Amino acid sequence: MNAEVERLREVLVAARGEIEKVIIGQQRAVDQALIVIITGHHALVEGVPGVAKTLLVRTLAAVLGCEFSRIQFTPDLMPADITGTNVFNFKTGEFALIRGPVFTTFLLADEINRAPAKTQSALLQAMQERTVTIDRDTHRLSPFFTVFATQNPIEFEGTYPLPEAQMDRFMLKIAMACPEREDELSLARRTLGEEAPETVLTGGGVRPVIRDGDLEGLRRILSGIAVRDDLSAYVVELVRRTRSHDTLLVGAGPRATQALLLAGRAKAALEGRDFATPDDVRGMAHAVLEHRLLVRPEYEIEGMGVREVIDRVLAEVPVPR
Question: How many Cα atoms sit within 13 Å of 128 on the Cβ side?
Fold first, then answer.
């Protein structure tokens, strides 16, 4: 392993350590969140209430040490509440731009599925192009603009499904489950003392590890992680298989191919290797593909879910040696 890759791994491990001061028993979610950040993409964080979805994103913002904004999505939220609007100033006789919370580096879109589709779609341009158009004028956002959106998968009353175009712009869906017994016992003990997660975060117990200026260099190092041609072909075949699989109504598009390759490469860096393996790709397949696929109704009735379909696809496509 070369020195640059070792430096990248050390930064990611240090960031993981800071996050775990607050987030207990969610190592996979923490690692996936770091993969999203280091690759310059966006993530959808999904889990039942109380599993620290919002707390994870707030902690990530503290570890990044960058400008942070939060939008609490509600049914009455309008697109202009996100992007901003031009307001006439009677003193100057001119219109002035009042910037919305999207003008930031790290954006938490909390409970994103509680706003209607037209409001959710206000983030489409920002997520894809890192620009915002307001009254025909286009404004550039930070090149490191990142969206982490949270949603509750079991509550449907008063919620709106995310448009497929927006779902595809999230590199990963980070699934957060309830912690194991020992982790939950540790959380209970800390809650009664001075090391409660919220207290640690708000009390400055988390130090910035990755800053805006560091991200460009770290991403450049990541591009040096070797990915063999046969591994790239394996990823392409996996994604293409979803488009013709008899259990799926909608398969994954080319953006999923890109996401799976980048996620596999970042996973290799997180584990301290300067080359990616099929196991790296397979380990990220569920997080990359799950929110992009739709199972046919007849198979859903039989109890088959997206995760089972992905397992089938992984079993059907030959793994490169």
Answer: 12
Residues 289 and 253: beta-carbon distance below 8 Å: no
Domain boundary assignment for the chain: 1-203+210-223, 225-321
Show pLDDT as tens, one digit a residue, over the chain (321 residues).
588 888 888 899 999 999 999 999 899 999 999 999 999 999 999 998 889 999 999 999 999 888 899 999 999 999 999 999 999 888 888 888 899 999 999 999 999 999 988 898 889 999 999 999 998 889 999 999 999 999 987 766 778 888 888 899 999 999 999 999 999 999 999 999 888 999 999 888 899 998 767 888 888 889 889 999 999 999 999 999 999 999 999 999 999 999 999 999 999 999 889 999 999 999 999 999 999 999 999 999 988 999 999 999 999 999 998
Size of the chain in residues: 321
Look-up: residue for tokens 């999904």? 46
pTM above 0.85, yes or no: yes
Superfamily of domain 1-203+210-223: P-loop containing nucleotide triphosphate hydrolases (3.40.50.300)
Contact indicator for 210, 63 with CB cutoff of 8 Å = yes
Crossing angle of helices 53-64 and 27-39, in 10° steps, is 50
